[in-house]
Amino acid sequence: MALCRYFAQGFCRYGDTCSFSHERGPTDQRRTVFAGSTLRTDHSVEQPGAAGKSTEICKYFLRGSCKRGNSCHYTHSQLAPSSDSSPAPQTAQSTSVGWDSRSGIPCKFLSFPGGCQKGSCPYLHPTGRNEVSKITDQLAASAISEQDQEKDDDFCRDIAGTSVQFNEFGHVAKISLPTDFSQARITGLAPRTTPEGVVRILNELGFHIGIECVRIWGENASETSATVKVEDPSFAKRLSVECQTSHAHLRVNPVRGSAHSTNCRKLYLSWHRATTTVCLDFGNGVIANQVAQKFNDGTYKYLGQLLKASSPRCSSARGGGRGSSHIPLRWSLILNGVPSDATPDNVLKAINAPNDRPRRVVMGEPSYRASVEQISLEVRRLLEEHGPLESLYLTPLSKIQGKRVKASALFKDEADAKLACSLNEKTMDILGNGKLTVTLLHTAKIKVPNTVYHCWKSCIDERSKTWKEQHLSFHIYEGAVCTTMKVEGDSAEDVSNARKIFKEISTPIVIKDGGNAIWDPALGSNGGAYQKLKAIENELQVAIQRIRSKRQLLYYGPPEKLPCAVRRITDMLNAKDSPSYELELKPQQFSWMIRGGHKSIEREVGRSVAVLDIVSKRLTVSGTQQQYESILAIMDGNHIVDTQPLSGTASEPLGTCPICFCEADNAVQTSCDHAYCLECFEDYCRSTADTSKEEFKIKCQGDGGICPTVFTLRELKELLSSSVFEAVLKSSFDEYVQRHPEAFHHCPTPDCGFIYRCTTMSRQPSAYTCPNCLEAVCTSCHVGHGRYSCAEYKDFASGGFEAFQQLKKKLNIKDCPKCTTPIEKTMGCNHMTCGGCKAHICWVCLAVFDASGPCYAHMTEEHGGIGLEPYAVDDDARAWW
């Protein structure tokens, strides 16, 4: 059968009814190879057959724009990397051609009559209908598997001018400062230079870096520029020197980084859905006008979507027959913006009235034929040209109400996200020359306890109306303990104002009366005073939090309700019936309390009468004089009590907080099935850094303190509000810096808060300018001495320094040999613990130890004792006697 010439040109519209052959030639065949979950196409490599054919790869073929096919004078070779084959070694002269990501996208022209006419098409050519369906399903699954939420927290924070990486338990794993990095801008690169090409050039110069360190910033007809950021402070200077000697055509300039950062890594993407036009033919002009009006006013909708109809046009129609003088007329109207997957039946279903039915429905050509999944892959490719992505979320079509497809992309680096904004209004061939819209999103996010959220709910609802008018996206995620609120938008100013509101919501006010914080020992327990405090909370619809370690009450809620809350709490405390007593516990008494003594007291006088504060080591009694005397008798041993030993079988009753030993209020349930009061749990987490003797970790205090569970940061983030969680990370960071004074120091400017990396003493002054307060400080001796060297400055200031040393000697004050924190010894043995870096010190010779045991052994061996008589030593020291 003869080959249809119109099919070969892509113009045949008869399809299977055509009387000519619609067969394709052998050059159109492709073989698809699946390697794991990755789609790759094994294209045939054309060998130079004709004389004069170059072995150089066609640059237009690599870009997918070569139209010569097999007649091209250059090689159309495209090799996909294999997972089981090792890469060939590269030399400086060799050219490595990477795998083209387009080979995983099915060719859109395969759906056209005549198929794809491009010789060596870089897009995927599946051989069967089932294969096309399978590939499309895989692409769809990969494109929409991301949730509309941020990726898991990597627990990296910007604190005190540094980037801090925490491990899974909250201990500082790494601290990176801006001065640890060096960034260089390279200009003069050849046009269309890729990041791989920049890496090869740097390798030739002796700099071995990864491709993730390179960003292509600008490209024009004559040259390309790139930036390279490496964790090496001297990289930019050394690269500049090397390029001047061996690559003089390249220009290298160091780039200063900004110390400020914002959360602007997210992009909002959208493009028009594929649409088509539908022509409706009517035999009556009145009906045609009536149908057009119903579509335009929304009476008729296509699957719930509004469509715009053109004014009907009258034209003659065939059908009068040969010799007939009557030529019938038809009125045609055009429906615009109809989804490309529309069918004539669906269009007819939109026209409800039987008398409005058209004679004929003619479907037009779609604006483009690529699927949403194919477009998302192409969009991802464009985005990744500007930097690596953390995620790309494609909104499912079932959730799209408008005429645009929506997606969001989260970059790993904020600079890459800002650079990718250049794709806004970019014309894309795959969209039928439609444009891609790209918007940079700013985000404000906060997590607060549910009680705090509910007391602010009316104000938040009112604010959300304003945010909606400002086109800001507002989301609320309410959990069992805490509620998360998030605002996103393209206006930095509007999002910044929303962040200020979030800060106002999460920042408490200390409840004071006449300048003094309101507190009463009765509030330390969950007894009558606390129950009355909760009643005031509910009546005023505010949140009041107890900070028992600081003996404070914190107020959350609208400011206008604060005066009323102060008055009600003051009146309640003044009118209480039972007096309150506080007992300072000695070490033996405190040990007896936590080993069952407190439970015995509760059995004797009742719950919530005696409250144990393990932080201050106090027992607060809120009851009668008789109850107070009974408790004293039990503690003095006049009453025989049944205490329980500290063992794995001795656990507190279900629902009892292991911190305050009372029934858990606003309970927090941990993964090890222990319940804490929310207030107790937050206070305990905050204080862990101050009480930890080794590396930072928050250990469960259940089962009498022997529960082996160490809370991970992921669990803590679920249980704590965002402000408390960030405070815990900050305390871990502060504790780490204090323990490593030889590596880090705080800026000496008051209230600055930034830190810097220490350097060793040198002849030349190592000046460092704090990026926060802009004060210069020497990183060796930690003072600002201008142009003087460290030795010159110390000699200059020796007069006052010597006088200060004499005063410290007179007051028995010595500096910690590790962090130089002044320590005063007033009593006790010669074992001292530095309050700054927690080092264990021998007071006689200032030897430093990591633990108390080796320190006591040293004092006994080297100094003949620890400075006290045997009867006065503590438990740690007695172990070495």
From TrEMBL:
Residues 78-98 have a biased composition (Polar residues). A zinc finger (C3H1-type) spans 1-25, 52-79, 101-128. Pathway: Protein modification; protein ubiquitination. GO terms for cellular component: ubiquitin ligase complex. Keywords: Metal-binding, Repeat, Transferase, Ubl conjugation pathway, Zinc, Zinc-finger. CDD domains: BRcat_RBR, Rcat_RBR_DEAH12-like, RING-HC. Residues 78-100 are annotated as: Disordered. It comes from the Eukaryota. GO terms for biological process: proteasome-mediated ubiquitin-dependent protein catabolic process; protein linear polyubiquitination. InterPro entries: IBR_dom, LUBAC_E3_Ligases, TRIAD_supradom, Znf_CCCH, Znf_CCCH_sf, Znf_RING, Znf_RING/FYVE/PHD. Residues 1-25, 52-79, 101-128 form the C3H1-type domain. SMART domains: ZnF_C3H1 (SM00356). Residues 653-872, 657-708 form the RING-type domain. SUPFAM superfamilies: CCCH zinc finger, RING/U-box. GO terms for molecular function: ubiquitin binding; ubiquitin-protein transferase activity; zinc ion binding. This is RING-type E3 ubiquitin transferase. It comes from Phialophora macrospora.
